[in-house]
Structures are given as C-alpha cells and as structure tokens.
C-alpha cells in the first residue's frame, strides 16, 4: 500500500549491548486486515522495521493500535481469516507464507515469544522442571538429569527461590510473577536470536514487574538475543529500549532512538502521550490529556488518523496521510505534516490542559448554595 | 497548591481514621462453611485528612487499600477502631444519622464499566443520589445538566446509556454523580487505573480543578506511585494491611526511609532514558506473603533487602519479634521500620 523507501533503520544502529551488527529480523510493508461485517479491519498498515542483533526495540501505542497484531504476524500466529501482505525475513529467510514445518523450526527456537499471560506458553499438565528440561533437550543432546540441572540453573538465573524444589511444581502452584519467570527461563533454554515480549509485566504488581524486567534483561544479555518489547509503560521503554517505535491506528507514526523520541518528539501524538504522564521524579505539572479516542480502523477516512484529536490539525491533514520522514536525523522519523513546528514546543504549548467547564460549575454551585 | 504541606497539622482534620482493624473470616468450602482462618486485611491503620487536602493511599494489590476506603465510608463494619468525620465517630452512628452524613462523603470506584448501572441513562445516573436524598425537586434537572457540562460532557449526552461512552467519559460520569450532593470528602478508589494514560490525564486534571474550585478533600487510593505523587499533598504507603510510611509527597519521594517505600520507588521506571539508566535500584525478592498468615514482627521482613543483606543477627531478631511503630526516628517523617534510614533514589 504505502511504498516507503525509508525502511526504519536507514543507518546502522549500535545497540547498547554491543557494536552495530547484522539485521536478524526485517519487516517490510507489513499489512494485516481482518474481514468483518462492517468492512476490513485494517489492524496493521504498512509497518517496516529492521532489528539488529542484540538490539532492544520498544513498541508503544494506545490499546488497539496494532502492536500485538504486528508481532503475531511476525510469528505466523494470526488466525486463519487474517489477510497478511508484505514481508517478514528472519536472517534473510522469508517467513510470510512459509510452510508450517519451516515456521516451527524458527518459532519458539530462534524467535521466542513472551505474552502477557504466561499460561499462553506453559502447559498446565506438566511440571515446570519437565517443560524447561524439554526446551534444553530440544537444543542440546544431553541426558535428562543434565537437562534438569540446567533447568535448575536457569530458574536460579531468573531468581526463583529454592529452584531445585520448584522443578516439581505445576504452573498452577506458582504466582503469576513466578510463572512469567519460568517462561523467560524456557526462552533462555532455547537460546533464541530474537525475543518478542508483548506486555510481559502488565497486570503484575510493580515490585514483581521490576523483577520480571530484570529477568528479561538478563535473558537477553545471556543469550545475546535482540528483543522487541511491547509495553504501554513508557518508563520501561525509557530504561530498556535502544530504539522506539510509536504506533497509531495501525501505522508507525514516530521512530527513533529512545533519546530522540523522549527528548525531541516530532509527532503531536507522541508529544501528548509524554505530556500526559504523571511523573515520579518531580512535583506535579499540568498534564496534557489527549481528548477523544483512537479512530476505528474499519473504513478509515483518508488523511492523518490523528486529525480528530490533534490541536495542530489543518486542512491538508484531512486529505493526505503523512509518510514517515526524517526529522532531527536520518534515524529519527515522524509522520506529520507539521513536524517542524514541534521544534522547541512543550506538550503544554500544543495541548490544552483545562478540562472543567468552570462556568457550568459556578452555575451549579450558585444554584445549590446552602443546600448541603 | 500541591506539596504545599497544607496538611492536617494546624487545623482540625475533616476525616480521621483511628486504629482501624478489619478481619475477614476464611471459610471452608462445602456444606458446613466453618471458619478456618482469618484474613488480616487492615491492621491498626490511622491517618488524618485535612480540609481541602489530598491524601494518597498507595500500595500493591491486596495490601488493604480498598478495604480501608470502605471502612472509612462505613460501607463495611470495622472489626475495631474509629472513623471521625468532623469529630463524629461514624462507626457508632445510627443508620439514619449515617444516611444523612453520607451526602458529605462520596466514593468513586475504579471500574467505570461496572460502577454505573447499564440500564440507566446518564441523566438518571447523576440524578439518582439527589432523588435518594429528596433533593431532586429543587432544581435537580438543572443541577444534572451543570454537572455533566462541568465534567466535559454535553447536556444531550444525558439521554445516552453508559455503554455508549468511552472509559474516560464513564469515569467523568462517575465523578459528576459523586459531586451531585455537594460532598465535602471524595474517596477515590483507583479512579484512573483502568484508563490509557492519555485519557487518565484528563480525569486527573478534572479532579485537580474540582478540588481547587470546590475545596474538596480527597482520599485517593492507587497502586500507581506516579499518579499519587502527582495528585497528593500527603501520602501513606501500605504493605500487608499496615501503613509503613507517611509524609508529604516531597518528603516521601525525596527521602523515603522505609525499605518497602524505597523498593517501590525503585521499581517504577522513569520515562526519561538518561535518568532511568543512571538510577540506583533497590530490588526485593519474592511475592507478598498471604494476609491470612502475616509474618510476625515487621510484616515486610520476608522480602526486606535490608533485613537480608545489612542487619546483624541481633538486629534481625528485633524485626522478627517486635512490630515496628509508625514514628519519626529522626528522618523528618514517620516510618514503621526499626532501622529507618533516608535514601535518595530519584
Ligand atoms: N482476530 C482478530 N479479528 C479481528 N480484528 C482483530 C483481531 N485481532 C486484532 N484485531 C483488531 O486489530 C487492531 C489492532 O489490535 P492489536 O491487538 O494489535 O492492538 P494492540 O496495539 O496490541 O492493543 P493493546 O494495547 O490493547 O494490546 C484492533 O482494532 C483489534 O480490534
Ligand atoms: N470480602 C472479603 N472477604 C475476604 N477477604 C477479603 C474481602 N475483601 C478483601 N479481602 C482481602 O483483604 C485483603 C485486602 O484487600 P483490598 O483492601 O481489596 O486490597 P487492595 O485494595 O489494596 O488491593 C486482600 O487479601 C483481600 O483478598
Ligand atoms: S499530520 Fe496534521 S493531524 Fe496529523 S499529527 Fe500532524 S498536524 Fe496533527
Ligand atoms: S523493621 Fe527490619 S524487616 Fe522491617 S523494614 Fe525495617 S529493617 Fe526491614
Ligand atoms: Mg496487545
Ligand atoms: Mg483495591
């Protein structure tokens, strides 16, 4: 659909964990639609990116923006009715349209996926020791006993107390946080090249979230894998991601290093999102809500999908959807007609922070004087 | 206005909790539901809420925040302890008296999907408290319209039903309803936790502005430390049913003294790449123990990094045997740790 000559990383990016390396995963013009009674649900629209060895790529975006569908498409895990086009290459090998047997040799081995709900990946009827040992034995020709020793080590690495005893536990005997660490241990046993983690800590308590993120980081460093990290938590992204992609209505709307996106955002949605975050590290400032809701991705009108919520929207925004284009540097791209006008602007300059209709409130107070 | 320390000190608090305790029985399954244990949900909780102040109650799930909120509003019966509203003990009131006072004390719940009656149009949802208290006939219709406009909805939205609104709009409807009786205190239980951040910001700004205009006092319950720092003047941190540390927002974030508060602050990543990567981290191991069988002495000791790594055996025995009191041990604000020590973590 969109012919985007600017694949996401036009420049080699040095990951925080090493020097610039080869592209392990290349996604090109990935487009996913689901037929529905109301028309085609355009879940993903022309997403392109490259992931290099050892790199952490963060994906953020509102609920429904297409983050999960993008990753499920990469893994070949979409339901049968999905209409997928574009290209997904793992180490040069095309995965879209590949046979199931070929996919299986990649999926879970070279590319490991970690979901929000660890039970998606665990089998309830086997002990966790058995499940980790199986993963070990799938890749190394070792005895059962040796595989169990390795399983113990892996559990220790992801900081599960008393790992040896824990081997005999079934998933239901563990807390959500512990199950997620078992999933990470299994991913490590598989020694993947790519880990895709989709909201791996959502719904867990903050202290447990921190433990999981530590384990995930450790797994990534131990295996040298690259990681695609999907999360709505911009703090997690800031701490972990080398590069960040912002999605809106099925498209990438901003891409850059973590510093680019957090310090010099060039797309109003990103600006608003960052301005809407209450901050732990400073006394309160006015927040910038983004009024309205994301558009439906069925029968989308032409133009920029952010138009109805964008304080900067002008006539052209309703007609022409902006392409991703370089901003502060060749690797920092944004999809906005008025990108340059965001130079030096704060979220409060762009978005309105007042929400109360004070006139209505004053009227209410006057009319109800002395009634309470 | 925030962090101005407009705390209860000085003037009389509008609302106080005094040594609140709540035990829930655990019953066996089966026909004869014998009591087989007790959940110690809230244990000796005391705090003051000042006029026009926001007190943030923060902690991880299951620590007793919602139970405390319900106790404070007398929606559930306390096992022991008192709740003083402008000097009156709510736990000792007759149902009739309580009904009258309820107009002053309103609650907004987390789930904007579950807390609004799906069969009622929005006008009726907002009008209902006025009707219940026999106040609708005196200008109720106009009041409902004013309230809807106040929270950013159009009067014509009043004829629609809750499912026709987004999460953020529903939460605004919940706030409009809570305001109908001109309460003095709002108890907000995770009011923004179910919302996307960009929508959450609108509800937080709304609460901010309403407080400034109406002089409301808020008890703001949340598991999200960033939200609490943003909205609260003073903060109480809960762990396994007890308050472990209290202070003004700046005291607590700039010099947390309890190891649990420190771990909590450490666990929240900052949305600032350079800052976040340069931070000192204090991590805790394991999960929260069951409130049916809380640890003796200090309830945090099974996960406390200080207990595990810094203390001598002699020092540890104190953590095991003696419940640490919530007092100021020279840190400038109270912390329930025998070995409280301020740290800078942000
Ligand atoms: N199997 C499916 N059939 C039809 N539509 C689907 C299907 N899966 C996803 N969608 C739609 O595709 C769009 C993108 O969904 P996706 O799950 O990728 O969002 P997301 O960004 O991961 O959101 P969240 O933050 O809520 O996880 C949404 O409009 C969603 O409703
Ligand atoms: N009605 C109840 N019966 C039994 N246990 C309860 C009940 N309500 C809450 N609890 C328990 O009390 C503890 C505190 O719960 P709650 O106040 O809801 O925590 P929070 O709001 O901090 O997540 C939890 O262990 C919870 O399971
Ligand atoms: S293209 Fe127009 S509507 Fe879209 S983000 Fe830019 S200014 Fe706003
Ligand atoms: S009293 Fe002991 S166990 Fe409790 S927080 Fe302080 S040092 Fe840790
Ligand atoms: Mg998703
Ligand atoms: Mg709760």
UniProtKB/TrEMBL annotation, chain A:
Location within or outside the cell: Cell membrane
Gene3D superfamilies from the UniProt entry: P-loop containing nucleotide triphosphate hydrolases
Segments traversing the membrane: none
Domain (ABC transporter) ranges: 25-274
Protein's membrane topology: Peripheral membrane protein
Family annotation (InterPro entries): AAA+_ATPase, ABC_Ni/Peptide_Import, ABC_transporter-like_ATP-bd, ABC_transporter-like_CS, Oligopep_ABC_C, P-loop_NTPase
Keyword terms, alphabetized: ATP-binding, Cell membrane, Membrane, Nucleotide-binding, Transport
GO molecular function: ATP binding
NCBIfam families: oligo_HPY (TIGR01727)
Family: Belongs to the ABC transporter superfamily.
Protein name: ABC transporter ATP-binding protein
Organism for this UniProt entry: Pseudonocardia xinjiangensis
Automatic annotation (TrEMBL), chain B:
GO molecular function: ATP binding
Protein name: ATP-binding cassette domain-containing protein
Domain ABC transporter: 26-265
Taxonomic source organism: Pseudonocardia xinjiangensis
Lineage: Bacteria, Bacillati, Actinomycetota, Actinomycetes, Pseudonocardiales
Family assignment from sequence similarity: Belongs to the ABC transporter superfamily.
Alphabetical UniProt keywords: ATP-binding, Nucleotide-binding, Transport
Domain of life: Bacteria
CDD domains linked: ABC_NikE_OppD_transporters
